[in-house]
Amino acid sequence: MVREFGNALSEIFKDHKVREKYSQGNGERFPRSDFEIGVKKAVQWGRGVAARKDDYFRSTRVQRLVSYNVAIVWSFILLIFFNFFRQHIAYYHYEVVEGIGQWMREPLLSGEFGAVLPILNIALVLSILGNGVLIVFDRDLLRQGISIVLHVFSLAVILSFLTVFPFNFDIVPFPNAAQVLSIIVAIVFIAIAIGLIVGIVVRIVRIVITTIRLET
Questions:
Q1: Residue 210 CB neighbours (<10 A)
Q2: DSSP states of 9-38
Q3: Is the backbone of residue 61 left (phi > 0), alpha (psi -120 to 50) or beta?
Q4: Phi first, then psi: what are they for 126, rounded to 5°?
Q5: In a 3-state reduction of DSSP, which class is residue 110?
Q6: Can you say how many angstroms the Cα of residue 31 is from the centroid of all Cα atoms in its chain?
Q7: Can you count the helices (H) and strands (E) in the chain?
Q8: What is the pLDDT of residues 79-137, one digit of tens each?
């Protein structure tokens, strides 16, 4: 009986020491109960989760801002290139004329490219404006709506290329080069068009789901 009583006192004393050590380690002067320790752990865990969540949203926001700026810069580059330097899309070959060697350039874009250029310029300008708006107002519904508009105009550009097909592959001096290159370019444009259509459908579904959630 005495031994059991002594063992019980020893366990109580040990538990008291553990709680006191834990409390002192956390800046507390007095020992705390198991309930208080549990509450403190829960609060610390909640703060950690909230901090990680804030870090995640900040990081994704930064990633979106980077993508917006990259899209604007890239659209500017394409806008300038296709309007002023499109002749550099060409087949280059080296020839010797009167003993003088020089690089010759044969443009791959035909004069029919002028029919595609207006819709291409509109799509690029809208990309610049749309991404500029998203830098200031980064809202989910607005982002999805602008993406749909940009996808629609990009699809219009692709269809214009496929319809007009302003390429002159006949200048490439390889057997069946014109036919092979035309097929490859057409396949690439069709694949891009399918991807754009899928993207439009996905974003429309996202807008509908988000709208339903907001209403409910």
A1: 13
A2: HHHHHHHHHHHHHHHHHTT-SS---HHHHH
A3: alpha
A4: -65, -35
A5: coil
A6: 52
A7: 5, 2
A8: 999 999 999 999 888 887 777 888 888 999 999 999 999 999 999 999 999 999 999 99
CA-based nearest residue to 169, from 184, 187, 154: 184
Asked whether the whole model's pTM tops 0.85, one would answer no
φ and ψ at residue 88, rounded to 5 degrees? -80, -10
pLDDT along the chain (216 residues), means of 10: 43 44 47 58 54 50 90 97 94 80 88 95 97 92 94 97 94 88 96 97 92 81
The amino acid that residue 12 corresponds to is I
Token digits of residue 202: 């996905």
DSSP characters over 59-100:
HHHHHHHHHHHHHHHHHHHHHHHHHHSGGGSEEEEEEEETTE
What are the structure tokens assigned to 152, written together?
Answer: 């629609």
Helix (H, G, I), strand (E, B) or coil at 104: strand
Nearest to 15 by CA among 35, 40, 34, 29: 34
Q: What pLDDT does residue 39 have? A: 54
The pair of three-digit structure tokens given for residue 100, joined into one six-digit string: 């003088």
Bridge partner residues of 107 (DSSP): 90
Q: How far is 136 from 2, CA to CA, in rounded Å?
A: 77
